[in-house]
Amino acid sequence: MRRTLFHKSPAAHAAITILLLTPMPAAAQGVTEAVLKAAFIYTFAKFTEWPADAMRAGEPLLFCVVGDAAIREALARAVKGRTLAGRIMEVPQSAPDGPSRGGCHILYLSGATASQAATLVAGLRDSPVLTISDLEGFTQLGGIAQFFFDRGQLRFNVDAESARRARLRISSRLLGLARAK
Predict the structure, then answer these.
(1) Is 32 helix (H, G, I), strand (E, B) or coil?
(2) Residues 47-72: pLDDT tens digits?
């Protein structure tokens, strides 16, 4: 049995479409880049399905952030008091057991070199961890999702093969909004 962590309702589809397609430069309307990226990370979680054996009963959904305190703080505010598929969402100060197998369900990595990112992603290979970064070429290194700016707007691409290898099912709705650079 698989645990579904995304909603299949028309309202949820409309919400993700509005959030991800509304032209909104990172600094527009009082929205910082960190807040915008945190909103995307939260939305990715809502539209991702983890395998049943990825989390024990009652275990929180852990969002780990490495290398960007502003995004960690914005993400902690975004998920505070919320649940997803009956699970409390948490953003620990530091990744429990490091950002390795078993410590995180979503990992956002920023400020790393390509070599550091490749090492981290290789250590998570085949683990059900949704890896996201703003590092140029992150998906080519084996990461699942990469943020980039296109004409002042935050966009993303997704490596569906890396997601499949991690046994994560990303909603076709989210995949349909991903863009190639």
Answers:
(1) coil
(2) 999 998 888 888 899 999 999 999 99
Q: Quick one: 105 exposed, middle or buried, by C-beta within 10 A (0-12, 13-18, 19+)?
A: buried
Q: What 8-state DSSP symbol labels residue 109? A: E
Torsion of Cα atoms, 169 then 171 then 174 then 180, to 10°: 50
Domain extent listing, the chain: 10-177
pTM higher than 0.85: no
DSSP 46-84: HTEEB-GGGS-TTPPEEEEEES-HHHHHHHHHHHTT-EE
Rounded CA separation 107/128 (Å): 11
How far apart are the C-alpha atoms of 163 and 144, rounded to whole Å? 6
Please identify, in words, the CATH class of the domain defined by 10-177: alpha beta
